[in-house]
Amino acid sequence: MATMHELFDHTADLGLRITAPDLNALFAEAGECLFSAVVEDVASIRPTTAATIGLTGDDREFLLFDWLRELLMQFEMEHMLYGRFDVQVRPDGLTATAWGEPLDRGRHHLSHEVKAITYHELKVVETDGGWLAEVIVDI
């Protein structure tokens, strides 16, 4: 199964649907999907700064929620955009490196104002040949 992500409309919210062959790729793709909702062109994000993120938790859905919430907080607080991710999911949490750069309004055109990650319809499930995640974000 190839990695993939897409955005879908969900009332006043926006849905993120991610597929990948394994959990590490699923979480990495979810990070890219989140930033594809924030900026019009994720490819415009240069990988000049690396951030290491460590999270604990044994529930996959809550871990995905915490992962995306941490990335969104870094955008809100530090104005950091990330476009490349290396994630190692463990039974007790995850360790990740995210590469990106500070928001440059001259090069980065914002798409949606993502206000929050929600628990609404949050899921991470194993499928035939891979994994599927769905997350609703408040915009």
Per-chain topology:
Blueprint: E1 4-10, E2 13-20, H1 23-38, E3 49-56, H2 60-78, E4 80-90, E5 93-102, E6 116-117, E7 123-127, E8 130-138
Antiparallel strand pairs: 1-2, 2-8, 3-5, 4-5, 6-8, 7-8
Family: Belongs to the archease family.
GO molecular function: metal ion binding
Protein name: Archease
Key attributes of the depicted protein:
single chain, 139 residues, alpha+beta, Archease, Possible Chaperone, Chain: A, domain 1, five-stranded antiparallel β-sheet, three-stranded antiparallel β-sheet, 2 helices, 8 strands, 43% strand
CATH class: Alpha Beta
β-strand amount: 35-45%
Q: State the separation between the terminal residues, measured CA to CA.
A: 30 Å
CATH topology, by name, is Archease, Possible Chaperone, Chain: A, domain 1
**CATH homology group:** Archease domain
| Uncertain residue segments | none
Instruction: Compute the average pLDDT.
Output: 94
Helix and strand content put the structural class at: alpha+beta
- How helix-rich are the residues, as a percent range? 25-40%
For the record, the CATH architecture stands as 3-Layer(bab) Sandwich
Largest sheet, in brief, is: 5 strands, antiparallel
**What's the total count of β strands?**
8
Please indicate the count of domains: 1
* Quaternary form: single chain
Please tell me about this protein's structure.
The chain has 139 residues and is α+β, with helices and mostly antiparallel strands. The chain has a single domain, classed as Archease domain (Archease, Possible Chaperone, Chain: A, domain 1), CATH 3.55.10.10. The chain has two helices and eight strands, in the order E-E-H-E-H-E-E-E-E-E. It has helices at 23-38, 60-78; strands at 4-10, 13-20, 49-56, 80-90, 93-102, 116-117, 123-127, 130-138. Strands 1, 2, 6, 7 and 8 form a five-stranded antiparallel sheet that branches. The chain has a three-stranded antiparallel sheet with strand order 3-5-4. Helix 1 packs parallel to helix 2 (60-78). The longest helix is centred in the middle third of the chain and has 19 residues, at 60-78. The radius of gyration is 14 Å and the shape is globular. It comes from Limnoglobus roseus. This is Archease. GO terms for molecular function: metal ion binding. Keywords: Calcium, Metal-binding, tRNA processing. Belongs to the archease family.
